Structure of Transport permease protein:
Amino acid sequence: MESTNKYFFKDISVMFGRSMRHIFRSMDTIITVSITPIAIMLLFVYVFGGAIETGTENYIDYLLPGIMLMTIGSGIAYVAYRLFTDKDRGIFERFHSMPIARSTVLWGHVLTSLISNGISVVVIILVALLMGFRSSAGILEWLAVFGVLGIFTLALTWIAVIAGLAAKTPDGAGAFSYPIIFLPFISSAFVPTHTMPSAVRFFAENQPVTPIVEAIRNLLANQPVGNEIWTALTWCIVIIVIAYIFAMRIYKKL
């Protein structure tokens, strides 16, 4: 039998293509992922925005980074669900009987998460532009924004992999995403942290969403990012490493 390592990237491309076909056959997934963040964006901009003081001229400019993170948080629930479905239907056993690298099955889902969530984020940005969002960022700043969002997506996706592999029911596979979706509410995504009570402020300033939001916000405003970018990347990389290790351990036991 030929070495599976020799065809590792080819195996990934096959698994990625399989997973992407599921997305294209049910584009309502992307629509569903985008609906709640869009509704929250409309609510905060047109209902609460006039009463919130953020120090910015246009509240949508302040709000958008947090909405993008919420969109990604919504999207990863489908990764967990699709992994659970593959496991429950015995798809993993079929793939394991083939001469392919075992981890490529997971990587197919992970790469699909990057693409599908990227599409959802673009939808959110287009809606924000219609609502008055404007950015002075150049091409490099936009590339940096999508780079940060991509790493954040990877971090959450590997957490979703753990949930999908460990869940006992379809509802359990996706339920883990709810705290992640609402984590931006206790951060600087909607209001500056200095307006919060001390205990809430301490949590908001020492959880991963705040530095990620601040880094993206500064990039979109073409302002110096300071230490936020490094704090954001450190959070994401640490989460990726830990989640990947646990996910692979669970996967090897299947």
